[in-house]
Amino acid sequence: MNFVINGINYHVDIRGNGFPLILLHGFTGSSATWAAFENKWSMHSQMISLDIIGHGESDSPEEISCYEIEHQAEVIYSLMKKMNIGKADILGYSMGGRLAITFAVKYPHMVRSLILESTSPGLKTALERNERQARDFRLCELISEKGLEFFVDYWEDIPLFSSQKRLSEQKWLAIRNQRLRNNPLGLINSLKGMGTGAQPSWWDELIKIEFPVLLITGSLDQKFCQLANEMESDFRYAKWKVVEACGHAIHVENPEIFATFVSDFLAEIAFSKENGEK
Ligand SMILES: C=C(O[C@H]1C=C[C@H](C(=O)CCC(=O)O)[C@@H](C(=O)O)[C@@H]1O)C(=O)O
């Protein structure tokens, strides 16, 4: 299904019945990330998987401001309004997790729960943000000068994804081919507009979140385990789950455990809502 919001076309994959679950993929990903979970989640959730701007079948506009993370949170707001959805569970992986946190901070009344896989609320200081933007700008130059295939070769080889080298060739190729289906301009503008250094820090906003949060990281992903540990202390109602022997993309490396953690968390939320708990 396609939605036009502010003149930009967004592709949205919608499967299943039940309470709305908005699914937000990572950088170089797409809504296809979540298809594998249809059997597990579509019984209890209406899975609404967005191709985030510059990714998948959504547009890759030239204007960088379209990609700003607060603007993209507003897009999710508009999408929910167009679908007559008042409140949803929001699940985000990595870049999608940063967008999920942004949406939760801007539109808390529209969130029932938040599920965050390997992500962060941004960088705390302007110095960190500037340094990260410079790093991400060099990635943009790599994409524009060397092309998408060269960039994907580089990207899949960064230390953060080293544990993915253990994946079956079929799984590894599926991720690679899905990265290669993206638009180079979309990835460049995504880094410039909504990269980790481009967004505001939401660290001081986490304490204001009043709905349940599930944090999921892989034990091999030390950086994002540290971030999850800190976020667990800052959120009022957060649970942190660590999946052993997994890296950054738990949904790829151990989809069974990931799917079960999400389903169990959502079942708990639904039960507590049905029994009138806040
Ligand atoms: C390399 C770092 O940050 C990048 C890594 C993960 C994020 C992501 O969405 C990757 C998804 C994937 O390729 O599976 C990405 C983001 O949040 O935009 C970060 O740029 C790092 O060390 O922080």
Automatic annotation (TrEMBL):
GO terms for molecular function: 2-succinyl-6-hydroxy-2,4-cyclohexadiene-1-carboxylate synthase activity. It is an enzyme of class 4 (lyase). The keyword Lyase applies. The keyword Lyase applies. Keywords: Lyase, Menaquinone biosynthesis. Pathway: Quinol/quinone metabolism; 1,4-dihydroxy-2-naphthoate biosynthesis; 1,4-dihydroxy-2-naphthoate from chorismate: step 3/7; Quinol/quinone metabolism; menaquinone biosynthesis. One of its GO terms (biological process) is menaquinone biosynthetic process. InterPro entries: AB_hydrolase_1, AB_hydrolase_fold, SHCHC_synthase_MenH. Residues 20-255 form the AB hydrolase-1 domain. Belongs to the AB hydrolase superfamily. MenH family. Catalyzes a proton abstraction reaction that results in 2,5-elimination of pyruvate from 2-succinyl-5-enolpyruvyl-6-hydroxy-3-cyclohexene-1-carboxylate (SEPHCHC) and the formation of 2-succinyl-6-hydroxy-2,4-cyclohexadiene-1-carboxylate (SHCHC). This is Putative 2-succinyl-6-hydroxy-2,4-cyclohexadiene-1-carboxylate synthase. The gene is menH.
